[in-house]
Records
---
Amino acid sequence: MSSSAKRRGLDRGYKEAAVRLVVEEKRSVAGVARELGISANLLHRWKREFGELGKQAFPGKGHFPAEQEELRRLRQQLRDVTEERDILKKAIAVFTPKRPHDTSL
């Protein structure tokens, strides 16, 4: 696939079929990639994802496996809580009266 070509969305079935050609039919990654018009690196990545995640591989745009979704949610929650903490620190600094320094020691 040329670098100037538009990025195309390939569905889950297409990716699984490509991986099956390599795994089940014992065909070379380079040969299958060439036939399909995709890069061999992309097909290697699909094969690795399918091997690691099985049926949860290739969840689609915006859909993540349960563990990734939980990690994404927890990171967002951490960002929110950190932001709230920083706002409260600034508010305390603004509303805390400043005391003159006691120099008579």
---
Amino acid sequence: MPCFSVKSLPAFALTLALSAALSVAHAQHTDKETKEDVLRHRAMAAAHEAAAKCLESGKKPDVCIAQLQAACKGLAVGKYCGMKHAH
């Protein structure tokens, strides 16, 4: 189970932005599909921001990860909302 760190948030934001840019550049999407991708990326970013705030509040990582998983259900790949990081 990964541990989240507030220090890793800027790196996550950069990774997310680059991934989004590369994903859009790589595949030919219709305008509608691109707009849907943007909304999904924003929803995933919001879920990760909420997980960071949860950890900052002093809650246990298990609680915060459960909230992240609930927020991302049907939105992203994998049980870590499309992202798993190392420390």
---
Amino acid sequence: MQALDELNKKLDKLLKKYAALEAENKRLKDTIATQNKSAEQLSKQLSSLEQGMVSVHIGRATDNEDEKENMRRQLDTVIAEIDKILNTLND
């Protein structure tokens, strides 16, 4: 009888510990989900800021006529390469 009481006490302890661990697990999962959302938002914000920075850089670079002409030639080259690829894909 005493052994049964001891087993019941141990079982109660284990059940309480299990419930506490389950609660902690749920809390940690919620924290992870919140941090993932935050990371996603920060990533979007970073991407937006990078695009803005590129725009500013391009705007500054186009102040000089030589740089504008160089950029125009580079864009023409890239567009020509894209056209070649598209023609190859269409054939």
---
Amino acid sequence: MKKITLRTCIVTKEKLEKKDLIRIVKNKEGKISIDLKGKANGRGVYLKRDLGVIDKAPKYLPRVLESEIDPKLYEDLKELIK
């Protein structure tokens, strides 16, 4: 039996399978992007695939990634979920 890897959503603090989450990554150059494959190098955080969570993300993401977040990232996340 294969072990299921759980990750924690930074907004809801729920432990979920990776398939139920979206990974946001900040690379060494400081660029923040959506990591669709889950394998990009850098500091990664997870958000639950839920529009309510994405609406709350602007409160959490800048603090966790210690960077300003482009508002377009949130729009891209919403489009990804729809």
